[in-house]
Amino acid sequence: MTAPALAMEAAAQMTQKTFKLTDPESGRSSALPVRSGTIGPAALDIATLYKDLDVFTYDPGFGMTAATESGITYIDGDAGVLLYRGYPIEQLAEKSSFMEVAYLLLMGELPTAKQLQEFTCNIRYHTMINEWLLRFFNGFHANAHPMAMVSGVVASMSAFYHDSMDIHNPRHREIFSHRIIAKLPTIAAAAHKHSLGQPFIYPRNDLDYAANVLNMLFAVPCEPYQLDPVACEALDLLFVLHADHEQNASTSTVRLAGSTGANPYAAISAGVSALWGPAHGGANEAVLSMLEQIGTVDNIPKYLAMAKDKSSHFRLMGFGHRVYKNFDPRAKIIREMSHKVLAALGRSDNPLLELAQRLEEIALKDEYFLSRKLYPNVDFYSGIIYSAIGIPRSMFTVMFAIARTVGWVAHWQEMISDPGMRIGRPRQLYIGATRRDYVDIGRRA
Ligand code: ACO
What we know:
The chain is mainly alpha-helical and 445 residues long. It is 49% helix and 5% strand.
């Protein structure tokens, strides 16, 4: 069944059941219909609540609020299930590739061989960036964080690709999708080369997506660069695992920015910035810093005590998730991959991997973590793989952004093609001063 058909089926079930909410003081009530999707918990439709009862809902962090219907990704956080367009992440990780997953997320179905070839070809032939965009990097200090450069340069793309920016034109949206997915690695690699003071390496259209990323990051013009197939495989897998995760903070940011009708490059740039935070995509960088800070197995109890201490800001990075209250299925796959990569690269004795495993073991026996259902998330092991294949820590979140761009674009497309799209605009519970009159400056205490 196609994604639009799934959405229609969900909408058709919308009014089968209602909840009645009554104001005990006025006796006024509101009948709130239940919307049920194809799987997962139903949602109470509160659109008439304010009109009927003069109240809004209060939900800090939007933990209980479905802001949209979506047919892209499904998560069951209690059971540790993640589906892209209905396909379990474990099957996609084992059998698919990043390009195939990108097609699936964007188009709703797995491609035929011909469709995959055409899609891959479209992405390959959009990998170069306008030479003027490259000059932007010269405005950054060498020590600028690559995420700062990437978000700035992505936002600037809107100044270069005017020919396809009508967000209501499906062909323009398609061209935009291909451009951003193809060019993000080129921009990311340019940021890395700028930090190193090395010449920029142009994309190679004979390489597949992950191999091209590694080549642009590590090749230099003066000698041939030998791509490692294990590194290419590992990076492609990490891209598959990071490609989408339903309404997470950065995707919601893209949707919110995009809902204003802003150009899509601006919306994706907003997503890059949101992803950078250590509570979100920045955690992969923070995990490695934390492991280095912990240093040895003997220090684990001290750091666990700090993580549990509410007066300390220290949290166990790579642990916990807003939605998963069970093992993050991506973390299981990445943990296995980290062993394979380190063994293949002759680094099985990696002290950080050993430390991570011991930390996981000890934390998962600890009442604090068990009772709060805090398990390792996708980023607990990803940094270990990235560093084993030579990617510097400051580039970890950039790698995440490359993969997540596919999810951001899929959600942006889904939102813009929805005829019922509205600007995203949350309400608030005002707790500031009540009305008061202006006091002239000379009369203020
Ligand atoms: N270390 C120690 N305690 C934690 C941690 C942690 N990593 N995560 C949550 N807790 C505690 C909280 O202090 C809280 O305790 P309390 O009930 O005694 O007050 C309880 O567990 C619930 O935590 P919340 O903050 O309500 O969980 P929330 O859903 O808001 O946050 C988040 C989820 C941001 C991921 C959090 O677990 C965290 O900060 N983890 C570390 C950062 C991280 O790894 N982020 C990557 C997430 S995956 C991704 O975005 C790609």
